[in-house]
Structure formats: structure tokens, C-alpha cells
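Researcher: Go.
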Amino acid sequence: PYMLIIGDSEVESGAVAVRQRGENGDLGAMKTEDFIARAVEEIETKIRIQRLNDILYKTLNKRELEIIKMRYGIGTKELTQREIAKKLGISRSYVSRIETAALLKLRHEF
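Model: Structure:
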């Protein structure tokens, strides 16, 4: 027998159910099929995020990347154009132009 631990979940070989540690630390039961489906979904999401990051870093220059990340909350809090402009010390209209140019570049990648 073996024990597989993924994140806060444990699966024993031959087990029909998965024990998952909840927010309060208690172990709850989940069907193995549900656990596997959820694990696959999480892995697919991580792969999509990695692909998106690869495209962003490959396609955009430093300033465009910085503005897109702040504007759409990628790895940070989502900000308005005005908030980004204030933070970077540039005009809101310049932020808008950079954002538009970056989105056009990204559109060509998809």
C-alpha cells in the first residue's frame, strides 16, 4: 500500500475515497473520481496560466507588460488607467495608448 499526497489531500492505494484536509484542518471524504477530476482541472489551469505568461513575456516590452499586468490584475491588484498613470508618473492617455498597442500585439498571438 502507498499514500499519495497532493496539496492538502491524501489518497491511499486501493482507496475508494480521498481524505481532504479542510480549512479547519479536519479530514473530509471525497470520491476518488471527483478528486482526480479536480486535480486534472487544477493542472490544466496552471498550464493555461503558464502559457499565457509565456506569451505575455515573449510578445510585450517591459512597459507594456507592466501596464497590462496592473490593468488586468495579473499577479497584482487590478488598477484603473488613472491609478496606473499616477503610479508610473505618466498621463492616463499615455497608459491608454500603451494598453491599446499591447492588446493589439496580443491579439496577433491568438
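Model: The beta strands are 3-6, 9-12, 17-21, 27-31.
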